[in-house]
Each structure stands twice: as C-alpha cells, then as structure tokens.
Design a protein that fits this description.
About 5% of the residues lie in helices and about 15% in strands. With about 120 residues, the protein is mainly beta. It has a domain of about 70 residues. Strands 2-1-3 form a 3-stranded antiparallel beta sheet, with no helix packed on it. The longest helix is centred in the N-terminal third of the chain and has 5 residues. The chain is globular. The chain starts with 16 loop residues before the first helix and ends in a 36-residue tail after the last strand. The relative contact order is 0.28. The chain binds iron/sulfur cluster. The site of iron/sulfur cluster has 13 residues, from loops.
C-alpha cells in the first residue's frame, strides 16, 4: 500500500518541505525533483517483475503493473502501484503509485504504460 513520507507539522519549515510532503515511501529521492510534469509511470525504473516461460524455462522480466478492475471503488481501471528499482541501501521496499511526481533519478521509459486501461 503506497504511503506518503511522514512529516511532522512541528518541525522548522525548510525549502524542501513541499517536495518532501508529496514524496512516497519507496521513491529514491524527493518527488518533484525530476523533470516538471513527469511521473514515476514514465520512468524506466518503475516496474514489477513478471514470470515468463522462455523455451520452457521460467524467467523474470520487468513489466508494467496490471490495472485495477472496472469496479474498483476509488481507482477503477487505473494502473496499480509498482516499486522503484533504483538500488539504494536502506530504501523501503514499498510500491509507489503511478502518479507520483518524478524524482531527480528519472530516466524516461521507451514505452510507458497508459495511466488508465482502455474501456472496451
Ligand atoms: S522517478 Fe523513477 S527513479 Fe525516481 S522514484 Fe520514480 S521510479 Fe524511482
């Protein structure tokens, strides 16, 4: 379950506060420190592992996450969260939603998935 960084309202204000408050646990750096208007969904480090069979042998390949169902209460037909796979010692192993603002390690994916599934 994605969750935002926990920020106390009782700490001294700092210029990085707005970025810190929109950062999800599991992102490798502050949300919004990357290119303007880009999100984790468009980054090549944001994916889930999928098992595929290659000539009868199982193999794990990076893949976009699946979509929520059409009857999901809050996020119908939306992309599910996925993990950021930039290696960083001590980084939380939590999933990040597709709409999280990109960080400074953003690397554009060649074929980013659509944010919403096409309704048939
Ligand atoms: S923009 Fe890319 S590198 Fe940065 S947190 Fe999102 S998935 Fe990770």
């Amino acid at each position: 379950m994605p969750r935002l960084l926990k920020m106390s309202d009782h700490m001294t204000a700092a210029p990085c506060d707005p970025q810190a408050r929109q950062t999800y646990v599991g992102q490798v750096h502050f949300a919004g420190s990357g290119p303007e208007g880009r999100t984790c969904r468009e980054c090549r480090h944001w994916f889930v592992w999928k098992n595929v069979f290659d000539e009868g042998l199982p193999r794990r390949v990076p893949s976009p996450p699946p979509y929520y169902g059409a009857k999901h209460k809050e996020t119908a037909n939306e992309l599910m969260p996925a993990r950021c796979h930039v290696p960083l010692p001590g980084k939380a192993r939590l999933s990040v939603p597709h709409h999280a603002a990109a960080c400074r390690f953003f690397d554009p994916a060649e074929h980013p998935p659509a944010a919403m599934r096409d309704e048939e």
